[in-house]
Specification:
Order of helices and strands: HHHHHHHHHHHHHHHHHHHHH
CATH superfamily of the domain at 1-141: Tetratricopeptide repeat domain
CATH topology of the domain at 1-141: Serine Threonine Protein Phosphatase 5, Tetratricopeptide repeat
Low-confidence stretches: 1-19
Largest sheet: none
Shape: globular
Number of helices: 21
Helix content: over 70%
Mean pLDDT: 91
Distance between the termini: 63 Å
Number of strands: 0
Strand content: under 5%
Structural class: mainly alpha
Radius of gyration: 26 Å
């Protein structure tokens, strides 16, 4: 889309002498478009397109910018209609195929989205953004082999770019090919061993494979390269917890909370870890969270462990979430409620194996629930 913006700015600069309404509305529309004022852009480009003096090459840009604005407003059918008009007027307009693919994907019409991206790639085979877009759609539809193939094409274009190996490694992991993922992250680190995210991704690969020792080593390297961040300690603690190294996990979660004392997930993981080590929650923990902190997810879970909510309250809060968040929140609610019940020696309402099956494949809770289901039952 950047070439379109550049062309649009040239129009704005060199057609300023024209006083006709079509040009004036068009130029004002460009200003609104660049401000991402979608509503104003739609209105101004609609006015520009209604004027007979707007030349054909600017009509293409007007339709495209209006379509982009419809896309920004989530009016996907209107966006598709405008991008289709652009393609009819200028069949080699790569950005129009890419933008229409985004609209189709938003409507979960993935086959049409793939067709459009594939057409865009055929028009400019070395244009990398279209490959990234197709990889994302293939991943969303779980066509991982096709996504891997596109990653490999990008690597052939730029064999010394570490980010591309990371991308393919992540895709391998999602396909369950952990050894290939580890190999790709190793290549990325051979190119540059000072990138924290590559240690993080390889740590995920090792953890998914069950190689907890190497996973912890990689998260330690991530910590070394990003010492002021809470999440690396959280990631290391979660792996140590899955591994059954609860004292080590406790130390990691404590480090995370020293950096960010009000980290709710840090508190939750520390609470269930101390349930394993028989260590009480610090008395000052309840003072870290205000009443408003306990309302927004995962606040109700924090309230449960602080004795300010019941398991029923938590369950109800998770079920009130919007559709996009509900699966994740129900997964977390069931897991942490089960841990809370264990700590308080209450009868479990759900078995951990059942909980794991309700969680998304990439949810942090899923391996934790599986680890719990495989642990010996305490007498």
């Amino acid at each position: 889309m950047k070439p379109v913006l550049a062309a649009s700015l040239l129009v704005l600069l060199f057609s300023g002498a024209a006083e006709a309404d079509g040009y004036q509305d068009f130029n004002l529309g460009l200003v609104s478009r660049n401000r991402q004022d979608w509503d104003a852009t739609v209105k101004l480009m609609t006015l520009a397109l209604s004027e007979p003096d707007l030349p054909p090459h600017l009509k293409v840009v007007a339709y495209f910018d209006r379509g982009t604005s419809y896309l920004g407003e989530k009016q996907f059918d209107a966006a598709i209609a405008d991008f289709t008009t652009v393609i009819q007027l200028k069949p080699d307009y790569i950005e129009a195929y890419s933008a229409r693919a985004s609209a189709f994907a938003a409507k979960t019409q993935f086959a049409k989205a793939i067709d459009d991206i594939t057409k865009a790639i055929s028009l400019r085979p070395v244009y990398r953004p279209t490959y990234y877009q197709r990889i994302a759609i293939y991943t969303a539809t779980k066509n991982m082999e096709a996504a891997i193939a596109d990653c490999t094409t990008l690597i052939k274009m730029s064999p010394n770019e570490a980010m591309l190996y990371r991308l393919r490694g992540t895709t391998y992991r999602r396909n369950g090919n952990y050894d290939l993922a580890i190999a790709d992250e190793g290549t990325a680190l051979a190119i540059n061993d000072q990138v924290a995210v590559d240690f993080r991704e390889r740590g995920f690969d090792y953890a998914a494979k069950g190689d907890f020792s190497n996973a912890v080593d990689d998260f330690n390297s991530e910590i070394r390269l990003s010492v002021d961040l809470t999440l690396p300690y959280m990631r290391k603690g979660a792996v140590q917890w899955d591994w059954g190294k609860f004292a080590d996990a406790e130390s990691s979660f404590e480090h995370a909370l020293k950096i960010q004392p009000q980290q709710k997930y840090g508190f939750l993981w520390l609470a269930i870890t101390r349930g394993k080590t028989s260590t009480a929650i610090d008395s000052d923990m309840s003072q870290r969270f205000s009443a408003s902190d306990l309302t927004k997810w995962p606040g109700p879970l924090v309230a449960l462990f602080l004795g300010k909510a019941t398991a029923g309250d938590v369950d109800s809060a998770a079920k009130r979430a919007d559709a996009a968040s509900q699966i994740g929140e129900i997964c977390e609610a069931q897991f942490f409620i089960a841990e809370w019940q264990q700590i308080h020696q209450l009868a479990a309402t759900r078995k951990f194996q059942e909980i794991a099956q309700t969680c998304a494949d990439d949810a942090v809770i899923r391996p934790a629930a599986i680890a719990e289901s495989n642990r010996p039952v305490a007498p």
